[in-house]
Amino acid sequence: MGFDVTTFHQLLNSGFADKWNSTPIPHADVSSWGEPCIGAHSLDAAGALGFTLHFLSLAMQEIVLQQIFALIPTTVNHYLNFALDILLQTLHDIPEGAIHFPNHNKIIKDNFLIHARHSKLIGGFGSIGGLSLPCQEADDPEVENATYNGWKSSHFISNVMVFSPQGVIISAVLNKTPDGYYLITDSAFPHGTATVSGKIQAPLKSGTVLPGNAHEQAELLTFNQQLLSYCQTAEWGMQMMQGSFS
Question: In this structure, are residues 7 and 244 in contact, taking their beta carbons and an 8 Å threshold?
Fold first, then answer.
């Protein structure tokens, strides 16, 4: 499912269980200020968290969740909406759950790690790539149309993922990238627009004209080879993400 036991219990004990046990599940005929009827719940806090993580990380229909957790359709909808809300609240309170753009000192440190192995990548501090994750077909026609991929004949959500050299996901806010620093990607990722010019470096495309000077050509090819080598880290990161959403 993409979550180990340690992470599951960290989420459970960092606020999810308390919120599940202390907040009434929203219903039209239930006061939001009333006492929750814990004994009447079909799932306890651990079951609700497992239920929610199954929904988030596995490309399954709600009917499968009904079968796995022995719930009726109405209960699935109520539990899912409620559990997603309190899971988001819980993640907001966990420092490890934050995705943010690194400060200047962190960028320098990440570049040092990359430069130690790829001496030509002066200024690189991470890798970036596009990733499509499968999702359930939405009831809303506009959402359904926005997520439908005609090439794959299924529904996906498109993402842009950025990975630091330490394997940490960081925020993909390219306009915050300091001058002289850049992210590394493959040649298929858009990187020639004015808004990201110089902030993304990619290997040479087929047919690129090389410099006539032998020394400059050798330098460019070495730089290109190291870009090609390091951008593989984004592929590894995205493969791990895909494994958690399959």
Answer: no
173-229 pLDDT per residue, tens: 878 888 889 999 888 776 665 556 678 888 888 888 888 889 999 999 999 999 999
Q: Dihedral angle at the C-alpha atoms of 60, 63, 69, 70, nearest 10 degrees? A: -170
Q: At 213, list the tokens.
A: 């000077």
Q: Which residues of the chain form beta strands (DSSP E)?
A: 124-134, 148-149, 154-163, 169-170, 182-184, 200-201
pTM of the entire predicted model? 0.73
Rounded to whole angstroms, how far apart are CA atoms 124 and 128?
Answer: 11
> What does the pLDDT look like over 65-113, one tens digit per residue?
888 888 888 888 888 889 999 999 999 988 888 888 999 999 999 999 9
Helix intervals (H) in 93-207 = 104-117, 141-147
Which residues, at least 6 apart from 129, have a Cβ–Cβ distance to it below 8 Å?
A: 160, 161, 185, 186, 189, 231, 234, 235, 237, 238
Sign of the dihedral through C-alpha 38, 41, 47, 48: negative
Rg for the chain, CA atoms, rounded: 23
